[in-house]
Each structure stands twice: as C-alpha cells, then as structure tokens.
Amino acid sequence: MTTPFHAESDSFLGRVDVVGLDSLFSDEEKATALAVRALVDEHIRPNIASWYEDAVFPREIVPELGRLGVLGMPYAGYGCPGRSAVEYGLAAQELEAGDSGLRTFVSVQGSLAMGAIHKHGSEEQKSTWLPRMAAGEAVGCFGLTEPTAGSDPAAMLTTARQEPGGDWVLNGSKRWIGLGTIADVAIVWAQTGEHGDGRGVRGFVVPTDTPGFSAEAIIGKLSMRASIQTELHLEDVRLPADAILPADSAVGLKGPFQCLNEARYGIVWGAMGAARDSFDAVLDYTMQRTQFGAPLASYQLTQAKLADMAVAIGKGYLLAHQIGRAKDVGALSPAMISAGKLDNCRVAIGIARDAREMLGGNGVTLEHSPLRHANNLESVRTYEGTDEVHQLTLGRHLTGIGAFAPHIAR
Q: What is the pTM of this model?
C-alpha cells in the first residue's frame, strides 16, 4: 500500500474544505469532531475492511462509544451527554467517514431507541434504561418497519391487545430492524385499535428476554455488512401495563416519526463523512498513481472531477450546518430534514461512485473505501425515508397538497 499524500490544510475537515467551512464551527465543536475522528482512526479504520468482508459488527466498540459520549448525544439528563445538535452532526460525519454501519449503530441506539424513551417514556422507563444505554452497557433497537409496511407504517400488522388485568399482549413481525439480535431492549410500535385504548399506534418498551420475543439476523447483504439488520418476531409477548410509552406525544404515528426525524438529521451529516472519506481516498491515490509517465492527479479530467467533488461536499456541509443551527434554536422543520437527507445522500453516493471509477480496477477491492461507502449508502439512501418519500414531503410543504396516496384522496 502506498503512503497517503497529505496537502497542507488549516481546516479540521482537511483538504476538501475549499470554501472555509472551518470558520463556521466553534473550538468546542471542532474538538468534538476530532475526538470522534481519533476513535475512528484507532479502532475502526484498521479493522473495517475485515469487518465488512466477514459481515461482523464489532460489539466491543460499544463501550468505547459510550465513554466518548456519542450515545444519546443530544439528550440531557439520565446520564445522557446533552450536547448540541451541531456537535452530534459532526460526530455522525466522523463516524460515517469510518463506515456507515458504525454511524448507524449510534443512530439506532441514540436517535431511535433512546430517543423514544427520552421523548415519550415514563420516569421509570427513563431511569431504568437511559443511563445504561448512554454508557454502552445496554443496547436498544427500534421496531417500526414490517415485512409488508416500509414507507407506509400506518399499514403495520403488529397488534397490541390489552387484557382485563391490564397486561398487554403483542403479536407480529418487524423487518430491517437494526441491532435486534444484540439488543437488550426493543421499542416496538403496534396497532392497539379496538383491543386497547382506541388511540391507534402505540410504542412499547420490550426487554428482549421476554418470552415470545425473538430476533434473527438478515444475511446475504451487499450493503451495511459491518452492521446488524434483523427481523423481529413477537408471539404472544406479554408485558405489564406500564410497558407502554405513556406520553401523549407517543400516540399515533407522530411518536415514531419524531424519532425518525432525529435519525434523519444524523444522516444529513453522516453522508458527508462518507463523501469526504471517498474524496480523501481518491485524492491520495491519484497523487501517487502514475500512468503515461505522470501522476493521475496531473491530468485535466482528474482535476475537474476532484474540483466538482470538493464543491459538492462543501455545499453538503453548508446544508447540514444550516439545518443543525436551526435545530439548536428550535426552528427545524420536517421539510428541512427532508431536503438535507434527500440531497446529501444523493450527493454522497455520487461522489463515492465517481471516486471508485477514478480508482480503476483497484477500486473494487476493500483496500480502498469508496465502493464500500457507495454500497453502504445504497442502504442509507433507502432507510429513514426513500428519495421519493422526502420528495413528497417537500412537495407537500411547497404546495400544501399531500400526494403520498392520491388514489385514497380521490
């Protein structure tokens, strides 16, 4: 393997920062990013190729993430770090520069599972689970998507029936659930309907050792191989009455959607980490790879592609920064999140693919990161809302007309 080329750069984001992004962030924010980068450099980069090839999620990294303070990062109290949205975003992009699967772990654990308990849980649920999850001592998963209900969660078939004594009994299946096979607790969303309090979809805190709960890993993936996606099965899972997430904010689909928006926010930043790493990889390579008697970087077509990548990544960071600052002052809207998730994922996957192409045949090996990033981003682009879902969210924002199911409207 050749020695990487490193050009001088005063920006903490490195050589890709051609528009002075460094000046947008405080010293504290940059220190957070650099601390996460150090963990990635020490624990993830040396091992990620083998983890990806062998389809292994490194469970041993979880306590390290807890000690670093990135689990449940935006939440305060109950042992959670209580950091800003921008700091969390910077942490997410550093993790995804290592691998999307590692950022996904932090997203599922923090934004989805911990987010559901922190936003919608009882005091007992919060005090029982959040300190352990923030420390990386317990792992959570978030069961919303089903085999027949992906973009349309209202069509979920999982049910929760409340019995005369107050217990709840859950039945159903969930699919594409991150971390299910290693989780200690699952947040499961189910239809209550006429069997419960008549308030529709509700969330439940389900310890995974509860009889009737099981999880199996989805295998044969061509993407997110250093990550865990699973199918959950609930067969007469009996829970006490207080297992339900009690807050009014958790009634109906607005409950899980609030958590999904937290996860989508992290993706806005995370995708730029994968794009930045792909850029760095191909810049190093083209500076050292000689063809026709000169480095590839000396050719006009190569420089044009590098320039386009740097400009696109800069715009992606500016978009993430704007959304992050809005979140920190309470001015974030669903349309902002959709705009960021939609475009930054499209930009990142394009850059990863272009970088792979510039690496030539060597780019299809695990020695180089861009194709791994591109494969992972196929999943990132799909989960937490496909392109089409976010286009329609923006369309509704622009026109005032919901077009998700026009045949129903007619």
A: 0.93
Q: How far apart are CA 55 and CA 218, in angstroms?
A: 11
- Give the HSE-up count for residue 290: Cα atoms under 13 Å, Cβ half-sphere: 3
DSSP reduced 3-state for 171: strand
Helix (H, G, I), strand (E, B) or coil at 227: coil
Residue 158 and residue 190 in contact, taking contact as beta carbons nearer than 8 Å: yes
Contacts of 226 (CB under 8 A, 6+ apart): 48, 51, 52, 55, 56, 57, 58, 99, 101, 102
Annotated catalytic residue within 123, 235, 384, 388? 384
Q: Which run of H or of E encompasses 320?
A: helix 300-328
Helices (H), ranges, 151-299: 254-288
* Residues belonging to the chain: 410
Q: Yes or no: say if 111 and 341 are a contact pair by the CB < 8 Å rule.
A: no
Annotated catalytic, 384? yes
CA 117 – CA 128 distance, rounded (Å): 10
CA dihedral of 234, 235, 238, 244, whole degrees rounded to 10: 30
Per-residue pLDDT of the chain (410 residues; tens, 9 = 90+): 444 445 557 899 999 999 999 999 999 999 999 999 999 999 999 999 999 999 999 999 999 999 999 999 999 999 999 999 999 999 999 999 999 999 999 999 999 999 999 999 999 999 999 999 999 999 999 999 999 988 888 899 999 999 999 999 999 999 999 999 999 999 999 999 755 455 689 999 999 999 999 999 999 999 999 999 999 999 999 999 999 999 999 999 999 999 999 999 999 999 999 999 999 999 999 999 999 999 999 999 999 999 999 999 999 999 999 999 999 999 999 999 999 999 999 999 999 999 999 999 999 999 999 999 999 999 999 999 999 999 999 999 999 999 987 655 43
